[in-house]
Fold each of these.
Amino acid sequence: MTERDDIEALLPWYVTGRLAPAERARVEAYLDAHPDAARGLALAREEAEASIAASDAIAPPDPAALERLMASIASAPQYRRASAAKPGLIERLARWLSSLAPHQLAYAAAGLIALLMLQAVTLGTVFMMPDAVYQTATGPDGGAARSSPAELLIGFAPEATMADVSHFLKENGLTVVDGPRAGLYRVRSESQADAATLADKLKTSPIVASVLPGR
Amino acid sequence: MHHLGRSVAASRRPVQNRFIDARIGYASGTAAGLNRLAVSSRPTVTAGVGDMTSPGDDRVLIERIARGDREALKDIYGRHHMRIYRFLVRMTGNEGMAEDIMNEVFLAAWQGASRYEGRSAPLTWLLSIAHNKAASRMRKRQAATALLDAAADVADLADTPDIVAQKEDKGRLIRQCMDALSSEHRTIVDLVYYQERSVAEAAEILGIPEGTVKTRMFHARKKLSELLAARGVDRGWP
C-alpha cells in the first residue's frame, strides 16, 4: 500500500471523527501537503451521508417487539456470577472510589498518605528505641521463661547411686519429668530461681556430671 | 433483490435529513487549523441522532440488568433498539429476520449482563452480539453465501428507464449501490458510517484484526465505486 492508500483507508474514520489523535494528525498533515487528496475526503463524506440516509430510512420494528421481549425474559434464566449478586470487598472499594468526585478523591488520597506516614513513624519509633528489643517467648530472658518453672537436663556421675540421686533431687526441689535420654534426665525446679543460677548451683554437686539448659 | 425478503430498498421511506450535527473537524488554535478553516471545508459527518446516551449511563443499566432489573432492560432497549435493528437490517437485508435477531440480542443481554466486563462501550457489546447472531443465522440459512450479485443487479438496474432519472439523484444512487454490496461490505460500511464505530470497536464486533477492518472498508468503498462506475458515475477513485 502506498502512503496515499493508507490515508485513503483512514478517511472514513476521519469523516466520522473516530480516528485516534495520532492518525487524525497524520491524515490532516497529508491533506495539507496534497490538496488533490481533498477529493477522496469528499467521496468519504458522500458515502457517510448516503449510509446514514439509508439506515435512517429503515422503518422502525414492530412496536410490539418490546412486549414480546419482556414476555420471553419471564421464562429466561439469567446467568449470574457470584460477584454480580454480591460484590466483593475489592469491587465495593473500587465502586466507592469511582463514585467519588475528583476533589473527594483527592481528599481520600491525602488521608491515605497521612495514614501511611503515621504508620511509618509509629513503626520506626518502636523499633528504633534502645529499650525496645524484640524477644521471643522462648528466649533466655523471656517473660515466659521467668514465669514458668526452670527445666534442665542433668547427667549424673556413673558412680552415683539411686539413693544419691533421690536425695539430690529432694534437696534441690527437683522433679524428673523425662528421661533418661542419651544419659540425661529432664528435671523441673519447684523454686523460682532462674535456670542459669540453678544450673550453676547444681554443677557443684559431686554426683552431677553435666547440666544443660532444658529449653 | 427478491432474496432480501422485505428488503431495505422496498421499505425505504423518504429520507430525512439527520445531519443535525455536521460539525467541523478542525484542529483549532493552530496555524494549520486556521488555514484549513479559511481555505477549505472538512466537515466531520456524525450520525447525531440516536446516540445521545453516554456509555457510563449504559453501564449502570447493564449492572441493573445483571441484578434482574426489568425496567433497566426496557431502558436500554429504548436507547439502542433502533441502532441494533438498523444494523441487522443492513447486514441481513431482511427486516423480519432483523426483528427476530434483535429480540434475541436483548434476550442475550438480559441473560448475560453479568458477563459484561465493561471493556468496550455497551453499544459495541450489543452490536457484537447482534453480529454474531446474525452471522450464525445467515450461515444456517446459507444466506451468507447468497450475497447479492452486485454486477447482475447493476446490469438489471442499468437496463431500466428509472436509472436515467436516478442519476440525477446521486445520493440515492449511492444508497442503491450500497444495498447492492455484499453483506460483509454493507456491514462494515454501516458500522463505520452509521454506527460510528472506531477501527478497534469494529474489529471487536466483527471478531477480526484491526488491519482487516481497514482493508475490508477500503475494498467495500472500492466496490462501491465500481458499482457506481457501472451505472455511469465515475467517482475518480480508486
Amino acid sequence: MKRRSLWSWIVLVLAILYFGLPLLGTVDFSMKMRRGVYSLDAYWAVLGDPRFQATFLYSVVMACMTIVVGVLLVVPTAYWVRLKLPRWRPVIEFITMLPLVIPAIVIVFGYIRLYNTSSWLPLTGSALGTDALLTLGYTTLALPYMYRAVDTGLRTIDVATLTEAAESLGAGWITVMWRVILPNVLVAVLSGAFLTFAIVIGEFTMAALLNRPAFGPYLQLVGANRAYEPAALAVIAFAITWICMGLIQLVTRLQKHTMRV
Amino acid sequence: MTTAITPAEAGAAAPARRSARVSFAWLGIVPFMAFALLFLIVPTLQIVIGAFRDQDGAFTFANVLHLFQPSILSAYWISIRISVASALLGCVAGFFIAAAVSIGNLPRWMRGPVMTFSGVASNFAGVPLAFAFLATFGRLGLVTVLLRDWFGVNIYAMGFNILSFSGLTLTYLFFQIPLMVLIVTPAIDGLKREWREAAVILGASTPQYWRMVALPILWPTLLGTFALLFANAFGAVATAFALTGSSLSIVPILLFAQIRGDVLQDPHLGYALALGMIVLTGIANGIYIVTRSRAERWIK
Amino acid sequence: MAFLELSGVRKDFELVRVVRDFNLDVERGEFISFLGPSGCGKTTTLRMVAGFETPTAGEIRIAGRDVVGLKPNQRNIGMVFQSYALFPNMTVAQNVAFGLKVAGKPRAEIDARVAQMLGIIKLPQLADRYPFQLSGGQQQRVALARALAVQPQVLLLDEPLSALDAKIRVSLREEIRAIQKALGITTIYVTHDQEEALSMSDRIVVMHEGRVDQIGTPFEIYNTPATSFVASFVGTLNRIEGIIADPSAGTVRVGARDVAVASPLGARRAGEQVSLALRPEAVTLAPRPGQDVAIEARIVEVAFLGSVIRVRADIGGATITLDTFNSPASPPPRIGDAVTLHLSSSDWVVLAD
C-alpha cells in the first residue's frame, strides 16, 4: 500500500516540474524587462500597445459571434435530431467530429480556393465577408466541442416529454426552444461557449491565412520582433484559458447545486 | 377475411405510419447540413479533388507523385517523427499521471485540480505555448540558465535546441500529456476492483495482473488515444510556426508557406500536401474511433 | 480439527468495529452460509478469509495453517463475485484457464482441465465466446468454473446470485449446490437471501451488526431462532409481546387471555415482559392431532398468494398471521369470520433479546 502511493508521488512531482517550470519560466521572463529588477514593464508595454487593444477586441468579438452562430446552429439541430430524427444521429455526430480529422489549415486552404474574389461566392473580397468566413471557420473548429456538450446536456433531460408538455400548453416551437429547451441545456451551452472562447481567442492559423487582424497573428508578430512582451502575452493568454475552464467548472457546479435543491 | 395482428406487428406498424406522416422532419436539419457542406465538406473535397487535377483540370496522379521529392518527403518524415514521439511520450507520461490519480492512493482532493489543470493545459496550445517554452528552454530561458549556473549543465552544448525536433516534441508534450490524462483517467477508473481481486485470488502477481488483464483491457483506449495524439500533433501549426518560424520544415509549416506565397511553384502540389495531411490524420482518427467503440463494448 | 477455523476474528475500519469476536469451525466439504442484512460484516469476514482484508485480531487457519500473513495469491482459494468479474478481454475458455496459466501448468493439462470444467458447468459450446456475449447466469457459471479450475482448498461465493433474475437464481443455486457436493469442496456462501441460505447450506451463520447471532443447521435456524433478530430475519414470523403469567405452569398472558407455552421460560418471574415467536405455518383453522392450544379469533385480513392463503386474525390485543394451503374444494375464510386457531404449545419460541 505504501509503495503504491510512493510512486504516485514521484509521478506527480515530475508532472508538477514539467508543467510548473514553463509557467514559472514565463512569469519570471515576463518581469525581467527592466535590467536587474523584477517589474511589470512588459505588461504595461503590451497593454498600452494600441494594436494589442485592437486585435484583442477583434478576437473577442469574433469569439462572441462564433458562440452565437454555434449555438443557433447546434442547439436546434441536436434537439431536432434527438426528437425527430434519431436515425440521423450517427451521421450528424460523424460530421461534427470531422474538424478533429481535417486539420484547420486544410479547411482554410479550401476556403481560400472556394470563396476567393473570382468565385461564385466571393467572401474574401471584402473585409466584412472575410470576417463572416472566419466566424464560420471558427464555428467548424468549435463544432465537435459544442455539439458534444449540447448533446450530452440534452441526454440528461427528457426532450420528447418536455416538448409534448409545452406543446400541450399551446407553445409554438420557437417558444419551446427558447423557454423550455435552452434553459435546460444552458449549462451545457455555456460550457461549450467558454471552451469556444478559449479556442478562438488565440487562434492563429485561420486568422493569419485569411489576413484578419486577430489576436493570434498579433501574438506571432510580437513574438518575432520583441523579447519580453511575448512572455507577458503568454501569461495573459494562459490566464484567459484558465478563466474559461474555471467558468466551465463553476457553471457545472452551480447546476449540480440547483439540481440537488 | 380478417387477419389477427399480434402486438409485435402492431408495434412495428405504428412508427412506420408516424414517420410517413411527418416525412418533412428532415427539413429541421437543413441549416446544419448546408453549413457542414459549405464550410466543412466542400472546401475539403475541393482540396482532395484538386490534388488529382492538373493545371487544366484534367485528372492526374502527378501531384501526388510529386510529393515523393526529397524536400517534401523529409518534411513528412520529421512531422511524423515529432508526432509519433510526442504522442508516444504523451501516452506514457499521461498514463502514469492518470494511474497515480486514479489508483495511486493519492489524497482524494488532488484529483479535481489535476483534471481541471489537464483541461486548461490541453487547450493551451498555439502561439502562447511557444512563448512559454522559449522563455523556459530557450537560450536565455529559466531552466536553461538554472541548469547552467547551478549544475554546470549546458543543454545547448549537449545538442538540445528548442527550435528542433527535440524542442518541438518537448513543447507539444505540454498539451499531449493532459489530453491523454483526460481520456485515459476514466478508462483506468473503469477497471473493476473485482478484476484485480479475481486475478490475484487465482494466483496472479501484480505484474501478471497488469500484463494479462489490465493492459489488454486498456489496450484499445491506449492505442486509440495514441492515434488521436498523433493527429493532434500532426495538424498543429501555430505552436511550431511561432517557435521556429519557417526554419523547421514540417508539413503544416510547408503548407502554410505554400498557401501564403506558393513556395512550391506549383499550386496543385499544395493540394497534394494537404491531401497527405488529411490521409494521415484520417487514418489516425479512424483507428481512434474503431478502437474506442471496441473499448466501450468491453467496459460496458 | 476443523478444516477452516476462524477464532476470535475481529475487524475495525478506522473507529468502526465491523466484525467482532467471530468464531467458526468449518469441516472439510461443508457448505456454510453467512446470512445477514447488508452491513452486518458477512462480506468483510469473507474477504478476510480470501486475504483482501487483514483481521485486526484473531486467527484464520486453513488445514491447520495460519493464513493471516499470506497474500491472497498464496492461499489457494477460489472466489466468485457478485458482479461475475470475468476478464472482458478473454474468451470463456481463457477465463477458466487463467489460474492454471499463471500457475505455469503445461498447455495440454490446461486444455484438458478447461474442457472438464466447461463440462461440469454444462457450457462446453460457449468456450470461444466473450463475456459480453453471455447472459448473467452463464457468466456466473463461467466464473464458478474459473474459480474451481485451480482446485482450491476453499471456495468463497460473495452474493453470487444477487444480480440475476429470480428464475435463474433458483436453478443456479441448485446447480451450485450439486457441483459443490460432487466435488466435495469446502464452501462459504455469503447471502442476504434467507431462502438461498436455507435451501443450500449444511449450516448457516446468521450475522447482525458485526456479531454472530446463531450458528446452526437450516432446520435449527428456522425452528429455534436464538435471538429475536434471527427470528425476524429468517422466514415470516408472528412476534407477540406478552407478560409472564405463571412461570411454573408455563403460561403467558397475551392480550386478555393466558396461553400455554412449552418452551422453558428460564429464570423469568411473573409480570416480566417476554417476546414470543410463532411460525405462520404452525397455526391452523381446523384442529390437527397433537395441537393443545385453541384460541378464539376474528379474521381481519385474507391474502390469496396462490398455493398458500395468508390469513391475519385478531386474538384480542394481538394479531396472528397464519398460512393455510389453498384447496379448490373449500373457499377461503372471509373477513369478519369468527374462527378458532389451533396450535401446539411447543410451537411457541421464547426469544432472547
